[in-house]
Design goal:
The complex is a heterodimer of chains A (227) and B (107).
Chain A: H1 3-33, H2 43-53, H3 58-66, H4 68-88, H5 101-124, H6 132-148, H7 160-179, H8 181-184, H9 195-219
Helix pairs in contact in A: 2-3, 3-4, 4-7, 4-9, 5-6, 6-9, 7-9
Chain B: H1 3-24, H2 28-50, H3 60-91
Helix pairs in contact in B: 1-2, 2-3
Classes of the chains: A mainly alpha (227), B mainly alpha (107).
């Protein structure tokens, strides 16, 4: 097959593909359009049970209480993804020079603010938009900022505290869920009176783990001997 | 035609565009980006359809699912990027060896 034939065939196949995808988009759009305009969904059931959940933000109630399994397994997914990345090789440390003074001062001012912001998001998640994942992302962003600006902490830590923080969220979640097993007879079901405090406790541990896991994923490898 | 339906249809469009890019492009970074665009389309559909409640306050269950989905998508993307870097370091190429695939663009 010569070059011109091949180019023509390639073009023909690509138009065929576009046509097929247009059909798929049409089918999906028809499915969306054929849904009823108003749907109650699970709103009323969440609202009816909100008082027993210990928090007043319905999204947090769903995430940490009604569908706690989702969130628990999601923490596991984060951890497994990090294990996958770590198994691929050793992280390349982004830089070895000291940062310039302006960058150094800016980062030094921003990072404490971001940690404060993460704490606020964690706290406010009980009754307004916010929560462990948002707080964890802000925490991870401050960690990535530190990594990119070449700032190093003056202390050299061994690897095990890092590993401890990585599993802290999942471990707290499973421990709290399992500890309440004899009380309720169900995994991950909190007694209504204690639920608010327990959710805050789990979220605090999860925030730390999510932040550190995301920042470690950014490094793209396990910490080497000189990290 | 209300605005929520428009968001949902835009989500369908994003999903289809991402699927096209995923099939057509050979470069692995473009494929990873395409999967992310597809995921954003799915999230947009879920959030838009969760807003169809009569009371005005959106259904919290799809929103919680989207938050979960975003975190899973981010960790999967990070793993994919690490794999891509590994493939590039091992073979010097950023695509899989594919012969005779007539649809793939060459960049």
């Amino acid at each position: 097959m010569n070059i011109a034939d091949r180019r023509w065939l390639s073009l023909a196949f690509r138009w065929l593909l576009r046509l097929l995808l247009l059909l798929l988009a049409g089918g999906l759009a028809y499915a969306v359009l054929s849904l009823p305009d108003q749907a109650v969904g699970l709103t009323n059931r969440v609202a009816a049970n909100l008082e027993t959940s210990g928090v007043s933000n319905p999204v947090t109630a769903v995430l940490l209480n009604f569908r706690g399994y989702d969130t628990l397994l999601e923490m596991a997914v984060l951890l497994v993804a990090l294990l996958g990345v770590w198994s691929l090789g050793i992280a390349v440390v982004p830089c070895r020079v000291d940062p310039e003074p302006v960058l150094s001062m800016l980062v030094g001012g921003l990072v404490p603010m971001m940690i404060l912001m993460a704490g606020y998001l964690l706290w406010v998640g009980a009754d307004a938009p916010g929560g462990a994942f948002q707080a964890g992302s802000v925490l991870a962003a401050s960690g990535i900022l530190l990594l990119l600006s070449c700032k190093r902490l003056p202390v050299r830590l061994p690897v095990w505290p890092l590993r401890l923080v990585l599993i802290l969220g999942l471990a707290t979640f499973v421990t709290v869920g399992a500890a309440l097993l004899p009380v309720n007879g169900f995994f991950l079901q909190y007694p209504p009176g204690l639920a608010g405090a327990l959710i805050l406790f789990i979220e605090a541990a999860a925030t730390l783990s999510i932040g550190v896991t995301l920042a470690a994923l950014f490094l793209g490898g396990r910490p080497g001997p000189d990290a | 035609m209300n605005s929520l339906l428009l968001y949902a249809l835009a989500g369908v469009g994003l999903f289809t565009l991402g699927l096209y890019a995923l099939i057509v492009h050979a470069h692995l970074l473009r494929k990873i980006l395409a999967i992310n665009v597809m995921g954003s389309g799915v999230f947009l559909v879920l959030v838009a359809l969760g807003g169809r409640t009569p009371g005005g306050a959106p259904d919290p269950v799809p929103h919680a699912m989207v938050i979960t989905g975003i975190v899973v998508a981010v960790s999967a993307t990070a793993l994919a990027l690490a794999l891509l870097l590994r493939v590039q370091a091992k073979t010097g190429r950023t695509r899989f060896p594919e012969q005779g695939n007539i649809i793939l663009k060459e960049y």
